[in-house]
Amino acid sequence: MSLEDLGDKGRRAKSERAAAKSGVGAKPTLKTIAELTGLAVTTVSHALADAPQIALETRQRVRKVAADIGYLPDRAAQRLRTGRTNVISLVLDPHEEILGYATSMINGLTEALRGTAYHLVITPHFSDTPQIEPVRHIMRNRMADGIVFTRTEPADERVKLLMENNFPFICHGRTELATAHPYVDYDNYSFAYQAAKKLIAAGASKLSIILPPERFTFAHHLRHGFMTAVREEGIGFEIAKGVTLDSKSDDIRDYLFQRMAEPERPDGYICGGEVSALAVMASAYDHHLELGRDIRLVAKQTSGLFDQIRPRVETIYEDLTEAGFLMGELLLKRIAGPAPIQELQALQTV
Amino acid sequence: MSLEDLGDKGRRAKSERAAAKSGVGAKPTLKTIAELTGLAVTTVSHALADAPQIALETRQRVRKVAADIGYLPDRAAQRLRTGRTNVISLVLDPHEEILGYATSMINGLTEALRGTAYHLVITPHFSDTPQIEPVRHIMRNRMADGIVFTRTEPADERVKLLMENNFPFICHGRTELATAHPYVDYDNYSFAYQAAKKLIAAGASKLSIILPPERFTFAHHLRHGFMTAVREEGIGFEIAKGVTLDSKSDDIRDYLFQRMAEPERPDGYICGGEVSALAVMASAYDHHLELGRDIRLVAKQTSGLFDQIRPRVETIYEDLTEAGFLMGELLLKRIAGPAPIQELQALQTV
DNA sequence: AGCCTCATCTATATCGTTACAAATTTTTCG
DNA sequence: CGAAAAATTTGTAACGATATAGATGAGGCT
């Protein structure tokens, strides 16, 4: 008895100290609820998990007390015990040139995670390490229950690795792998196709497109949509050489400035990013070429930016916030358990 | 003995199952290292903590083994035992209009956290809950060891709360509270002052500035810098009414469009954000006013965007990535222990 | 030899949670 | 009424780390 008393006293003293220090009541745990209700810690745990073998009346009582004292399960303890981290990891490439790309994604993701126990952790992918490294690391050390990543490649190593290990993930963009996998993608084929048609309808006679680096799947989709349109129309075209959507914007502009000085210059441009579209406008301006007469442009719009750009530019909208939201939703569904693969895929239409 | 054997067998069987399932060797723990070195778990723990009472030779041997098998301490276990989360929480306001503001901050923060045990967790602040809520939540439930937040107010409740509880934090922007606190800020006073001087030097005769909402401290800094300059020069001025940098960009443009139609219209604009600067350009364009002749503009530049904007606009640069990096560094220093307050403050110059 | 000191290593308990097995109480029914 | 079945609650161990206190052994000193 005396030992137990001592133990209790010691514990109480400790928690009082903690309370005094933090300035608020000590953080409630299952034990707190157990003491308040006179139940065992195990019972409280089961009750909160809504286990059917706990009397309904008890479950309700426990839930009420828990709510009253503002109980929140300790993430560390849960994670240690169950192995579930309640974490979603967003692997962020520092290279994202599209303004606000990451922000939009994050906003969508947090919205999807809202009300769940999941937290969003940003895992940077530093450019001096292989792309697969952060993914391997998260998987090996169970840093998260699910992974979100972007800039998917046709034979993406990350997808392969994650699929092999049956680790929940979702990526922005598709692969060309035989095995279907979860993804959210934007229909870049249609974007490029429709953009080309618009330019032609507006009177352009030679089209140009600035593509993302070849290694990304969506570069192929864009090219395919572009090529389909120009072939259908039998119109001249070219694909910007030496620069990509990932190039520094000054380099894109320099390329365009040079190209616009040459005789066979294109007069219709398709830009898959806002900054590159501005680069087109800038070099046209620097050549005193008039937009809409000498040069035409269709840009992909991902922010409110182009609402303020003059002269007005034709744009096609891609909703990145929605993409982030979808990624969150689908990933959560995947984490909850196996699901038919087509329920884990989403293609945003133009 | 038989009981122990059974226990061991059970455990081994389990971990083998885990290994088979994940396709890689089971995750190494202190126990793994203990078995490999023949030491006790406690010793290994101490050795890795570089405790001086462990023989140097032993420490080195343990470190080597740990590195060889790729040991990484289990975050959940560490967090549960020590109470330290190894998490930095960035409270993100969904309202950030500045393009890529969050992304730049995040990039800087992750760079500062690189190589440390700290993870970056994004905690959204949904606009339908009071601003202090996420901070209170993080503190009460010890969701992080430190908090980063932005859009600081003169009598910021978050700062007060965190200071009272001696909880490590850093904010972007200053308060006007009596007690000094850690911050990283940009010298918006000088920005506005210099921007005004530039406009005047370029021939503007009446200045206008679009301010952030009044509740933010940097709105006051901007106004103060602006007012100082216009008073020094004895020049006409006004402060945009009814719109702020947080207004929808279309609303800003509509306001400006209307204002530019009136007789006493300003001819020099100071914009604290890129999108609002574009709005100025758009409404000037829509009025057929020529930039640099009828209307002058100095914008704050926070991305590469304005390198592509034509006609070229005078800008003053604010490095948000560096701000994020500084915030990370200073917060880590604060978490490591108390430090002289002036070592936890940084003011970025224009 | 016997005792002490110092250097080094180790056992135990604990953080808060949950899986598992077991115990307790209540109900059912012959 | 009493045994079996059902309903409800509980104890124990474990997840992986570390703080605390204690154990072990080598060497020094008298």
* Rg calc of chain A: 27 Å
Q: Going across the biggest sheet of chain A, name each strand in turn.
A: 2-1-3-4-5-11
From N to C, what is the helix and strand string of chain A?
HHHHHEHEHEHEEHEHEHEHEEHE
Q: So what's the oligomer here?
A: homodimer
Span between termini of chain A: 74 Å
List low-confidence stretches of chain A: 1-24
Q: Estimate the mean pLDDT confidence of chain A.
A: 92
Share of helical residues of chain A: 40-55%
Number of structurally distinct domains of chain A? 3
Question: What report would you give on this structure?
Answer:
Two copies of one chain form a homodimer. With 350 residues, chain A is an alpha/beta fold. Helix content of chain A is 47%, strand content 15%. In chain A, the strands form two sheets. The first copy, chain A, has a six-stranded parallel beta sheet with strand order 2-1-3-4-5-11, sandwiched between helices. In chain A, strands 7-6-8-9-10 form a five-stranded parallel beta sheet, with helices on both faces. The model of chain A is unreliable at 1-24 (pLDDT under 50). Strand 2 (119-124) of chain A pairs antiparallel with strand 2 of chain B. Chain B binds a DNA duplex (30 and 30 nucleotides) through residues 11, 29-31, 39-43, 45-46, 49, 53-55, 58, 73-74, 76-83.
